[in-house]
């Protein structure tokens, strides 16, 4: 399975169109509000019957790829709930320091869910952490065979790394963010620096 921001897909398609259509590219630069926003740029790939998750993520213009083992240790409870027409069962687990509650349906016998969550005897329909900082809910299901779900590991632009090395590079990059922006030719005034710094 592939987990990706819907807006990230739109952004990529706009970039591809802009590469071949100069007039379209100029219209995008003239009105940046036409470019959708996304809170995350990473792509996650999960394979059935495997704990390995492959991540492709960006730091500025560089794209990185790494694998990590994720062991989802669920406790299935007796609670049931109907969500969007699906009869669901409740499961809980601690994951990366947070307590998550998931509702999954055995009606769809696919052991998967959003983000890095999987490992239940049915598709996860809804999941959130105890403080609702992270919350996912299935809105709709569509049948599609248009897109391959396999990461292109032979893409030469991808920098192979590990999860730990990626996080270290991300930390260093955020510390040197303004310096790297200026090296790439982008100049920011103090207001712009403050706004980006806060973000």
Features:
single chain, 199 residues, alpha+beta, five-stranded mixed beta sheet, five-stranded antiparallel beta sheet, 5 helices, 10 strands, 27% helix, globular
Q: In words, what does this structure look like?
A:
A five-stranded mixed sheet has the order 1-2-3-4-10. It is α+β, with helices and mostly antiparallel strands. It is 27% helix and 31% strand. Helix 1 (6-20) packs across helix 2 (22-30). Strand 6 and strand 7 (98-105) form a beta hairpin. The chain starts with a strand and ends with a helix.
Strand tally, please? 10
Number of helices: 5
Percent of residues in helices: 25-40%
| Order of strands across the main sheet | 1-2-3-4-10
Which runs of at least 5 residues are low in confidence (pLDDT < 50)?
none
Strand content bin: 25-35%
Mean pLDDT: 84
Question: What order do the SSEs take from the amino end to the carboxyl end, as H and E?
Answer: EHHEEEEEEEEEHHH
Entry summary:
The chain has 199 residues and is of the alpha+beta class. The chain has helices spanning 6-20, 22-30, 163-175, 177-183, 190-198, and strands at residues 2-3, 43-46, 52-59, 62-69, 75-83, 86-95, 98-105, 123-129, 135-137, 158-160. Helix 1 (6-20) crosses helix 2.
